[in-house]
Amino acid sequence: MAIGGVAVLEDVLLDVVEADKPTRIYEVTSKAVEDGVNISDHMHERPITLSISGMILGPDAWTRLQRIIQYQQNRQLITYTNRVIHSGMAITSIDTNHGGDTANGVKLTIKMKHVRRARPQQVRVTSVPPAIASKAQGSQNAGTQQPQGTAKQFNNKESDTRIANIARGFSGGGTGGGGGGGELTMIA
Question: Which string of DSSP letters, residue by residue, matches 26-51?
Fold first, then answer.
């Protein structure tokens, strides 16, 4: 909540907010038809973005800036409170300006995006329509199918020796394979 007209980013006070600009976008899909005209048939909301320009001032300015950076690094969803409350926001970028006109503080621009999370739900199916039930009864699990005629088979002694040398090299006991102490499982 804003304290005495000061904006708050989760639990960090922002001493000066020059602007906070929310952006709401609705995307409209378009499909081309034969006459060369696009038909718009659907509209959906994109996540709200928020840009905050302001300053953090005082002897604890660096500590408060580090706290905001920590929110971003931890991917924490936070709440911004000023005139309007924006919750469930993720910090996407932090731009800072440490110029001479802000002694004992920092100018910053923070960009955030609202995060909507999907929630899985379980649904109990009590009855299945007859058309779907008959299709399900007719299907069988065929198991994993092995492609035919694509693998080259090694049946001669020279190939078996080459594979054994590669295996020894891979496990660290010779030359030729990968020589890295890894594990090789041979399937007969």
Answer: EEEEEEE-TTS-EEEEEEEEPPPEEE
